[in-house]
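I am writing to request your help with a piece of structural work I have in hand. The matter concerns a single protein, recorded as an amino acid sequence and a row of backbone structure tokens. Could you please explain, in whatever detail you think fit, how the structure tokens follow from the sequence? Thank you for your consideration; the sequence and its tokens are set out here:
>
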Amino acid sequence: MIRTIGKTINQEIINDFQLEDISENKFEWYWVDIGEPTKEEEALLSSFFHFHPLAIEDCLFRLQRPKVDHYDGHSFFVLHTFNEDTLEAEELNLFVGQNFIVSFHFPPMHELDQARDRIVQNPKGWDRGAMHTTYHIVDKVVDAYFPIVYKIEDYLNDIEDKLSSDVYHLSLDQVFDLRSDLLRLRRTILPMRDLLYRVMNSERVNLQQTEKAYFGDIYDHLLKLADMVESNRELTADIRDSQMSINSSHMNRIMMILTIVSTVFIPLTFIAGVYGMNFTNMPELEWRYSYFVVLGIMLITAISMLAWFKYKGWFNLFKN
């Protein structure tokens, strides 16, 4: 599907014009959006627009790292958006020339719709040309990162607030999933940050001072996003370490209980074993009160050992 919008040399705004109108040189600048393209529409990149073959190859064979390349007559941008449900990166390609923008993408992207609406609703920006429109597109792409990062941050804070051994497995599963999501974001945000830095400092792009201010604002947003992603990755590591410590402490308590039980029963088992050997010459077996005396000795031994453990402070380990 192809959508077009442009400003004519007569200062008129025209929507959805035919590509043939471009050849008549009636536009001061124009934007052609090629979304969910057919084979015929893909071929227009070469047959009609005559873009560089390497740039066209990057468009058709996804998924490229965010970058900017410069060719004769145009610059080629590779941007990434995110699928909100899967957080999979989706590629948006921009061909930006002195008086044109051609956007190319396979999945539909609401960021482009938002950028188009902003341009239409802000007539004052029409005189700033193609690069200002490029700013709106990149700005909407980057703005869409914030809700995703904020959502992950809220999840992590919620997990941290509920941190306990009772939710150990659930929490760690969520933490590792979120850590994986943050890694995906990081693989896009850092290259996007580098891309904006190159755009702002490249002589090939030749930004005006006012345009540098606009792109500098996007660069600041990417710096903030990069810091948020790194801080959240550190938070996942802290939660993981805390959960491991909680689990280790929990296991130590269990082992302490088992140790106390085993230690108490060792002498009791010894006594029961001695008098369970059934030798003929065991005078205690003939005594009327032997059974009760042995039980008493076992009870006294168990109580004495428990008292000794309490004196040594072993039971303090069970306190929260």
About this structure: Residues 209-274 form the longest helix (66 residues).
